[in-house]
Amino acid sequence: MIRKTILLLIFSVLLTSCVPYKQLEELGIINTRGVDKIENNQLETTIIAYQFDAQSPEITTTVFGIGNTIKGARENAGYNTNFELSPGQIRLELYGKETAEDGILEYLSTLVRDARVSDTMLVAVSNVTAKEVLTAGQEELMTDVGQLIQSLIEKEVQEYSIPKTSLQNYLRIESDIGQDPVVPLIGLRDKKPAIVGLAAFQNDRLVGELPIDQAFLINVFLTNTKDTPLEITLQREPLSDYIYNNVSDTYQADNPENEDQFTILVKVLKGQGDIKLKNIEDLHFEANIHLEVDLYETSELLSIKDEKIASILEEEMAKEFERQYNVLFAQLQEINSDPFGFGIIYRINKKDGELTDTEWREKFPNVTVDFNVNVDLMHYGTIQ
Amino acid sequence: MRKRLKRSSKNIFPLKIDELEHLLMREFTNSPDLGFSKYEHQNKKIAVFFITYQVQPDKVENLLLTPLLESKKDWSNTSILNEIPLNSGKEYQLLEEILSGLIIGKVMIYLEDETAVVSYDFLNKEKRSLEGAETESVVIGPKVAFTESLVTNLNVMRWNIRTPDLAIEEITIGKRAPREVRLLYLKSLANETDVNTMRQRLEDLEVDQVEDINVLMQYIEDSSMSLFPQFHTTELPDRTSYAILKGKIAVLMENSPSALIAPSSFFSFFESTEDLYMRWNSGPPLRLIRFISMFISVVLTPMYVAAVTFHYEIIPTQLLISIGQSRAGVPFPPIFEALFLELMIELLREAGARLPTKVGQTIGIVGGVVVGTAAVQAGITSNILIIFITISALASFTAPSYQMGTTIRLLRFPMIVLAGILGLIGIMFGMCMLIIHLLKMTSLGRPYLSPIYPIHFEDFNKALFRLPQNFQHKRSVSLSLKDSIRFSKKKAQEKKDIDE
Amino acid sequence: MEINVNVKSNLRIQAFYLFFIIVSMQIGVGILGVPRLIFSEAKQDSWISILMATVYIIIVLFVMLLTLKQYDNADIHGIHLDVFGKWLGKLFSTVYILYFAIALYSVLITYIEIVKVFVFPEVSNFVMGLILICLTIYGVLGGLRVIIGVSFVFGVLANWILFLLIHPALQIDLAHYLPLFQASFVDLLKGAMASSYTFMGFEILFLVYPFIHNKNKVSISSILAVTWSSLLVLAATMLAIGFFAAAQLERREWAVLVLFKTQSFPFVERFDYIVVAELMMVVAPSLLFLMWGLTYSIKRVYKVQQKTTLYITSALFLIGTFFFEKHFETQQVINFANQFGLWLIYVYPFVLLPFVLLKKRLNKRKGARSS
């Protein structure tokens, strides 16, 4: 009796089941998507999708669509392909510069609303239009540009050279009052896609571009960095006594404009940044950065014979970092974007713990910060 | 048994030799086989009768007839029993007993006008000799397997468990063609309720005949509708004796080359005696592999079907590309593709099992390699699925019990169908149903999932893994045995300081 | 109907399993959405709200146990009969039966909705309802022993998904918890109230108490269970608060489920799908217990065969899944179950206890007089 009922029920599941099949090989699986705003407030999407066609060995395809909404543009792009475009495997979302300047939250919230879309997808901004980056590269390289950009970003994120840039991270930082997101800026270098800088946001609007080598300075405050290669240019003067000059006088003539500079490449083993609010009335902050570095390469031969030289080197590095921080911070204040999260520290130290976005936007340009960098030189390889 | 006795409970003796011959010839329709010889000795008529091919004729000649006829003695039943130096002498009075005695190879002697027949055993039973196990082959440990002869099997069992504590009860089963069944257990250990339940079930069985112990198992198991075997049948005597020594009950049956072990839990089907012979730290990982492979075997192909049919999102991009490319030309939905390949594997297995070993191997190679490659090249199936199917087929063969292996293999089919209908939700539904089913099952009234539920942490040591011998001081708690302590824990785990 | 329940010795269970019974009843789909509810009241001080709720629940548990200890082996229906008499007692018992039905229905449609949002937007309510009801019928037919087995085995098996939360836990932003102690007492109370739906389920003690073999361990087992559930809810809430920005969390339904989206392994990219499927193992014990409670209560009160009510109510629930397909309708059902349960579970034991004590005193006096 029981078993008969169960059998009956199972059969009725069989009969009534109306979950439509979404077979892998019948889908166009979107891997990368570019979004640009064009005239009349319309959107143009550039979609790089996988499609598995027995007739063709090529699995990636690029299609374009125009519409008033993201989904509408996708539907429009769907007319170009015989596969059903589906968003479950989007790994990279690229926004054109002008689009990002008008704010990207509305596009991102579409992604979040659909539970099937991954939260770990990367978000990036192009310094031209997304279409240009995605198509120009496609012709030039004959490979999947979407994947190329993804691995570029992932590699840098793994080295902690740039901050994490997943959809979830972006949204969290964007939603946090008192902190603004930064995402990698993708441009074309020799007609190939490359990371050319860092896009600084004010809430969800693109407000400025930062040079790529300053991304690490921001990332130190966002996570504990490990093993990041970094090139840093120091003043030659304090170290000149210890630079081992085997070519004697002729050497300096080679690069006259850099003669007072000395470049080294270090690996930052550990990087930690910490912000303290010193004075809530004056909006005075103190930022302490601790870096442990290994020396890897010097532009000129340098002999580190004793502790004294090492400490001079440490000091010079710290000075240089502090200078860079001050420059960066001034620039950020100018565009009123706060990727370090000074606002969060301000909020948690405030009495009622409440802070509105507009309040912080007014206050941020008046903030003063003391950047204290502490560099520890750990090892310098097998030669002194 | 009781009924048969009732039918012929009248004493027919004394009677004349000729009358006896007549009576026997009438009862035996196959009269040519019945040897009935009459002798005159010291003016007394003696009849000796037996079924010719059931006895050893030269022994009858040498040991029985020669002393009987050459002696000058005046024979009577008692003097025969006293004088002839054979120990199997017995008196029979009832016709039914005589008939059944003749069938199993007894030689009957009747002195005219006596009130009973004297019988001696000269059984001549055709049997094969003891051989190594075929279906449950082991790498280390005893390799001998049971044979069809109950006597031989009992002999082996007695040699394995040399204690008078071993109880061997005789029960006869089958109304029309009775078979002898033996119930084996340790008197001082086995749970009395279990023994009584088992005996009850065997005695209450009212059937015409029971063909084999596997059939007997189906008659007496708790839930006959379930896919899962509820008693363990094994062809290994050492496994049987190990179970008996653990406090379980074994049943042996005439003409069946395997023993039945009860009660059996789900986990005991994944135990092999080899786990015991291996060192404690190298055996249990193998058992773990068996559990994992059971899981893989049930879930792997359905997972593929679910992911490819409904949830492409859960496949990592690189894997997605290779699966997508291999699926590209396949004309069937994944569920049919998977069912088709699973059926093919079952086909190969079945063909291999039926054919002689050497041909079977060829079939395996032809079927597996040639057809598999051709199917992929023809674009009927994707090669990634072939890998999954092969892995899950291999995994299903790791279960030490053949019956459990078959069950696991069968379970895949409903799972694939469920995955094809409702994806991961369907698989989960199947798993939930399966676990609830296992929870509902019992073996000889004991929970099937023991020691997981009801939980006995002490038994994890035996059912799921195995600790070194000095931690094995307790017997299974879930069997509620009469004596639960194997040895003193204190002595076994005595600690010594350094350099003592 | 007897006041005390005679339970055959083979149906008795160890108090150990009470832990799993209560945890599996409390932890259901509710835990996925509760961080948002608590957070929107108590903000970063939600943990205080949860602790307050836990303490209150433990007090309720003590009251329930005290009530039950006045009898030899009675359940809630027996107590109702004894205290309120035949008709009024039946009325109160019927309220309990209705509660079980509504709670069961709310669990059913919530899980269906989660499946529809996260995995299969196209699946019909009927199919999902059918498989869940199928599971429920099959389990309940096995009786209490099997249901407890289900809660135990599933309760252990489903725990692996907690390991998937390690990755999101490493990404939390500690600043989200600061500054501490900002919420007012009223807000904290509101937060505790918001967690009430999730914490419902320990009322099953009123029904299973007679089945428990070693009654001296009941209190420790049930308190541990409530503590463990609270820890789970606390962990989920704290994780969600740390992981999401405040503005995000206030908008996200089932925030805990979204946490699983960030975890990926080389062989599985997205775990939220697997977690939604695995949730069936979390939901099934609640469904089984509620269905058992429903049918068993009807048997106790109205003497109807459990099998009959099982089939009839299952059919009704199955038909019921057709209604309330919209999200806000589902929420209304949950809110109703919440309101219903709030009075019945969190307040009613305090009302019942004085009646029971009074009745006992009266009985004693009567006994003394007659002797």
From TrEMBL, chain A:
<feature type="domain" description="Spore germination protein N-terminal">
    <location>
        <begin position="21"/>
        <end position="187"/>
    </location>
</feature>
<dbReference type="Pfam" id="PF25198">
    <property type="entry name" value="Spore_GerAC_N"/>
</dbReference>
<keyword id="KW-0472">Membrane</keyword>
<dbReference type="InterPro" id="IPR046953">
    <property type="entry name" value="Spore_GerAC-like_C"/>
</dbReference>
<keyword id="KW-0309">Germination</keyword>
<dbReference type="InterPro" id="IPR057336">
    <property type="entry name" value="GerAC_N"/>
</dbReference>
<dbReference type="GO" id="GO:0009847">
    <property type="term" value="P:spore germination"/>
</dbReference>
<dbReference type="Pfam" id="PF05504">
    <property type="entry name" value="Spore_GerAC"/>
</dbReference>
<dbReference type="InterPro" id="IPR038501">
    <property type="entry name" value="Spore_GerAC_C_sf"/>
</dbReference>
<dbReference type="InterPro" id="IPR008844">
    <property type="entry name" value="Spore_GerAC-like"/>
</dbReference>
<protein>
    <submittedName>
        <fullName>Spore germination protein</fullName>
    </submittedName>
</protein>
<dbReference type="GO" id="GO:0016020">
    <property type="term" value="C:membrane"/>
</dbReference>
<feature type="domain" description="Spore germination GerAC-like C-terminal">
    <location>
        <begin position="197"/>
        <end position="381"/>
    </location>
</feature>
<keyword id="KW-0732">Signal</keyword>
<comment type="similarity">
    <text>Belongs to the GerABKC lipoprotein family.</text>
</comment>
Automatic annotation (TrEMBL), chain B:
<feature type="transmembrane region" description="Helical">
    <location>
        <begin position="288"/>
        <end position="310"/>
    </location>
</feature>
<protein>
    <submittedName>
        <fullName>Tetrahydromethanopterin S-methyltransferase subunit G</fullName>
    </submittedName>
</protein>
<feature type="transmembrane region" description="Helical">
    <location>
        <begin position="415"/>
        <end position="439"/>
    </location>
</feature>
<comment type="similarity">
    <text>Belongs to the GerABKA family.</text>
</comment>
<dbReference type="InterPro" id="IPR004995">
    <property type="entry name" value="Spore_Ger"/>
</dbReference>
<keyword id="KW-1133">Transmembrane helix</keyword>
<dbReference type="Pfam" id="PF03323">
    <property type="entry name" value="GerA"/>
</dbReference>
<keyword id="KW-0472">Membrane</keyword>
<dbReference type="GO" id="GO:0009847">
    <property type="term" value="P:spore germination"/>
</dbReference>
<dbReference type="InterPro" id="IPR050768">
    <property type="entry name" value="UPF0353/GerABKA_families"/>
</dbReference>
<keyword id="KW-0812">Transmembrane</keyword>
<feature type="transmembrane region" description="Helical">
    <location>
        <begin position="369"/>
        <end position="395"/>
    </location>
</feature>
<dbReference type="GO" id="GO:0005886">
    <property type="term" value="C:plasma membrane"/>
</dbReference>
Automatic annotation (TrEMBL), chain C:
<feature type="transmembrane region" description="Helical">
    <location>
        <begin position="123"/>
        <end position="141"/>
    </location>
</feature>
<protein>
    <submittedName>
        <fullName>Spore germination protein (Amino acid permease)</fullName>
    </submittedName>
</protein>
<keyword id="KW-0813">Transport</keyword>
<feature type="transmembrane region" description="Helical">
    <location>
        <begin position="15"/>
        <end position="34"/>
    </location>
</feature>
<feature type="transmembrane region" description="Helical">
    <location>
        <begin position="148"/>
        <end position="172"/>
    </location>
</feature>
<feature type="transmembrane region" description="Helical">
    <location>
        <begin position="308"/>
        <end position="324"/>
    </location>
</feature>
<feature type="transmembrane region" description="Helical">
    <location>
        <begin position="273"/>
        <end position="296"/>
    </location>
</feature>
<dbReference type="Pfam" id="PF03845">
    <property type="entry name" value="Spore_permease"/>
</dbReference>
<keyword id="KW-0309">Germination</keyword>
<comment type="similarity">
    <text>Belongs to the amino acid-polyamine-organocation (APC) superfamily. Spore germination protein (SGP) (TC 2.A.3.9) family.</text>
</comment>
<dbReference type="GO" id="GO:0009847">
    <property type="term" value="P:spore germination"/>
</dbReference>
<keyword id="KW-1133">Transmembrane helix</keyword>
<feature type="transmembrane region" description="Helical">
    <location>
        <begin position="224"/>
        <end position="247"/>
    </location>
</feature>
<feature type="transmembrane region" description="Helical">
    <location>
        <begin position="87"/>
        <end position="111"/>
    </location>
</feature>
<dbReference type="InterPro" id="IPR004761">
    <property type="entry name" value="Spore_GerAB"/>
</dbReference>
